[in-house]
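ugh ok so i messed up the first submission bc i forgot one of the chains. this is the corrected input, ALL of the components this time, i swear. 882 residues overall. if the numbers dont match what u have on ur side tell me asap before i send this to the collaborators (the ones from the other lab, u know who)
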Amino acid sequence: MVLRVGIVGWGAYIPRYRVKVEEIARVWGYDPSVGAELGVYEKAVGGVDEDATTIGLEAALNAVKRAGIDPRRIGAVFFGSESKPYAVKPSATIIAEALGIVPDTMASDLEFACRAGSEGLRAAFGLVASGQIEYGLVVGADTAQANPGDVLEFTAASGGAAFVVGPARDAVAVLEGVYTYVTDTPDFWRREVSPYPVHGEAFTGEPAYFHHIESAVKGLMERLGLKPQDFDYVVFHQPNGRFPLRIAKRLGFTKEQVEPGLIAPYIGNTYNGSAFLGFARVLDIAKPGSRILVAPFGSGAGSDAYSFVVTDAIEEKRDRAPKVDDYIADKVYIDYAMYAKYRRLVLRYNM
Amino acid sequence: MAYRLSPARLWREKDSRYRLVGGMCRRCGRRFYPPRPVCPYCGSKSVERVELARQGVVETFAITYTVQEGFRDQAPIVYAIVKLDDGARVFAPLTDVEPEKVHTGMRVEAVVRRVRVDDDHGLIAYGIKFRPLRPAKSGQ
Amino acid sequence: MPGPVYIVGVGLTKVSRHFDKSLIDLFAEASLKALEEAGVEPRDLDAVVVGNMLANSLGSQDSLGALLATSIGARYKAAFHVKAACGSGGVAVYTGYSLVASGLADLVLVGGVEKMTDYPTPVITTALAQAGEAEYEVFYGASFAALNALMMRLYMEKYGVSRDEMSEWPVMMHANAEKNPYAQIRRRISREDVAKSRVVADPIRLLDSSPIGDGAAAVLLASENGLKKLGKKPDVLVEIAGVGLAVDTVELSNREELDAIPALRYAALQAYNMAGIEPKKLDVVEVHDAFTITGILSLEALGLAEKGKAAKLVAEGRFHPGDKPVANPSGGLKARGHPVGATGVYQVAEITMQLRGDFPGVKVEGAEYGLASNIGGDGSTITAIVLRRVR
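and heres the new structure output, hopefully the right one now
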């Protein structure tokens, strides 16, 4: 399959605040070793005035900067998140407005747990490939929610990444192929009025995360006739620091292929930002000619597997915006009380 | 007393709130924020709307502990007058900075953040704030 | 040249947390006192001008002209409400002056009244903040103290003024207010007390800030013809010798200068020119020190101190009782209190008493010229009113 599309620009954003897993464990009475067990030691926390839209916007600004295109040439804005500030009212229009992309564009918010953004990526590639739009902007961002005291709270983090998608001639990474695998698998959900998601604990592992990613990646490699050793980098969805290494091993990838795109140990699980930020971090360092496998996963459940080949154009675009590691390094620790305030776990009434 | 956010008002102001659109005087060349129909400096009626520079320096600031209703979660709020690189002055809060680290002359950049939220049911108002350049070591 | 306008009666309430008194109670107390001084019955008035800022936002009350004029029995008279944030009182006097000077009215009662203490501080802070620009300042939750703190920091940094030097202003205000029976705070403080008080909006501290209080003040204005209608002839006649009013952008960001109150320079110049005097003629001034910085910048804008020098001069002892001019012998907004929409009327009433020689607090002996300057917003609506002892 010849798609003639690719990534034209990438951008990351991670809020500056961090709370340590051991601090959360202290508050809720967990054994302090929980961080080591999860492979996550601290997580990124959005400030009091941040939400998935503002985080997505910062990432999108960086992506457009790297793409170096007039934003008005973008014909679609897709925003993938499961922490939308409004249940009804798109965030994509806010981002489009703030970037000066409106009004001559599509703009949609997508929902598919942690792979909503990846649905947007598939859609944008399709629109570019079919010639309906010249460029598309895809944003994945979350201020991931977790019930306080739930094991999910150790990892649920804030962050996002964005990609400008366009024709292969402009691309920093050309799309070689993509394969998606979805089923109805109730591993993780949030009802309309619930503030926090509920999950099937161990059920989120084998039948959900592992089965879907494994199937998607195998499906892609089969179609493209590629083997694990054909890839320089491989990026998976990262609900914690362990799962990506386990799925990699099972699929025959080495630790060295996974680690450059592994960010969960430093910032936690940013849901829709997770695999996207891992991919962005790989683009921050990848040399022309590198082949990258990217496999986001969303509960419910589904996984997409993409294969990209990096082009020469990447070198000049790399330094146009901050890198993922710049954001990882630029951090301020806060205690649980500040984290609780910032993430609105403490309800203040208007009295 | 404390009014709810008006949808029409937020909509009307979105260019200035999201993209830092201000005024530019065609006669004296000065830029200003918020935009006004007549140049506040020279009185010329020939003004146009332009996107202002997104970086500047803190000219003065106030670390505010006594805040209005609805702003307690953001306190202390550091309000600043920022002189943008194109000469326009903007009044806005600083964000992502420890108050004790703020100083006049500090370089800052514009970001869009939540400014006020009408409890659980109303609108979320986004607007311009400034933060120290971030990440500090990136080559932009 | 407009005809002469005299101040023939004044009335004040103590500024306080008058939990037991309503807006009408306060207005009536001050107004009836002013009328009583001149032996004028409410039905003899031609007009009532009310200065008020917060009755609408805090008290859910509009129609103040009618409400308050009829509350003292001035039914079927001309009456209306003038509003310019904390500058409402000064603009009310300016308006009353215009009515009399133009010949439209002979006897005009100007009453400033404010009822602030019915609600907790954050509610009052929110209401007061409306003096700022709604869409680009108040939108961000900016308190009034925050906006003034921006000016204070700039001033201190630019002119190398220390915290200690700034602190002398509130110290002087508290000392002056100690003798003023109408003052809200009658307690001496030290510079150290100021420097150690709670931070409201750094660098503004609690003791840099005027307190929240209720109060009312009234002045009765009369034309030459109006003098003939008075039941009691005043022993000393005080005239409004000059008035000035000037505005500046409500939003600080579009001002030329942030270390000054330029509109006060313009207002003062009008008033000086009209009165035919230079600033050095003034014996006493009541300036608008909502915050320490406002008082300091007012002295400079009035031409009483060079730019950047006022705080240092105050710290060195200038403008204290015995100097010329004396600044805020009442204790100013800082200590007499700042019932916002009434403040401008308090100032004019206090200067009137100084010129008459019957102010019950710190007296400025033999004063002939006095000035009251009142500020709405952080320097956006400003009145300057020069009073002169005629005989």
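quick check: Chain A touches chain B through 31 residues (CB under 8 Å). that seems consistent at least. The CA atoms of residues 135 and 144 of chain A lie 28 Å apart.
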